[in-house]
Fold this sequence. Notes:
The chain is of the alpha+beta class. The protein has 2 domains: 9-74, no CATH class; 84-298, no CATH class. Helices cover 53% and strands 12% of the residues. It has 13 helices and 8 strands. It has helices spanning 12-15, 50-60, 65-74, 84-105, 116-162, 165-168, 173-178, 182-187, 189-192, 205-221, 250-261, 264-282, 287-298, and strands at residues 16-24, 27-34, 38-41, 79-82, 235-238, 241-244, 301-305, 310-312. The strands form 3 sheets. It has a 3-stranded antiparallel beta sheet. A 3-stranded antiparallel beta sheet has the order 4-7-8. A hairpin with a 3-residue loop joins strand 2 and strand 3.
Amino acid sequence: MGLFSNVPRECFQEAICWHYLLFLPEGPVDVVSLNFRTEVYLPACYECSTRDLADLIKADRPRHAAAIAAVEAKATKWVSFLNPYAQLVESSQLLLARAKALAATLQADMAAPHTAEEAASFVQAFNDHYPLALELAGLCLSIRMMCPVMIEAFLNLTLYALAKPALRSASGGLLALTRQPLVKKVQGLDQTCDYFLRPVDWAAPVCQAVDELRRRRNEILHGNVDPVGQKYETVWLWEQAPLFTRALGPYERALGSKLSAHPLAEVEKDFQLVEAFEEHVLSCIQPTVAAEIRNILGSIDLAYDQDRDKLGILFANAHHDIQLDGNQ
């Protein structure tokens, strides 16, 4: 037939979902399901419209009703959904890359101008840098806000994959488990989930750092005002005259507080902390199961079988397409 003559063997599993061979008096009919379409290859001597072929197959279905029913009885229903953890990681990585690119082009400070020529040059440089600095500050804030959410998504996926059957079927089920406070959720993982070798040590430095990360996120999320904790500089006031403890140039005066509120170096530490915490938790799980959780975390599209309450992966992150050789 030559149907697969030009297809690399390693592409079969990801590019071809299934392949069935039907038979007509004129010869075999290949029906191939690919990622993006279903292709039908008819014998060269057989002339048939798409509609006529579909009608022919439907007319033949009653003869195979029992076999079809047996197949349908074994089929399981899965719903595909976007992995919230993978989306957060992917988005944060893109934002972090952009933040690093901006930081590489920005000056930490600019010397104050002293002449008319320097002033003109300063204004031009400031106008070029100002919008980039604002973007950098916004990116850093966004990433810091997402890091604790990544941790929550990681824990919730772990619960969906490993929570004990009795707890899954109890009142509230998985929803009740995932809505627990973060600290309680982490401390109880070995009790709520199967395959844990030991409890997660919440007293470990990485967990205490996560607790601080969570607290800082909550302060921002709730719009809390903390003048002392958020201070940028100290200024003395004598009657109506400000007495500065340090001199700030116009560039730092305009942008210093924005850039120092969430420095890029601290943002990178937050991102690394998320990874370190995940490894801390995964180290408490049986190695083979931990490897499966890593696969789930890295899969962009996940699937859920609601009838059997199972989480799984149906498709790879990279979708392949191929051109089949249909000559027969």
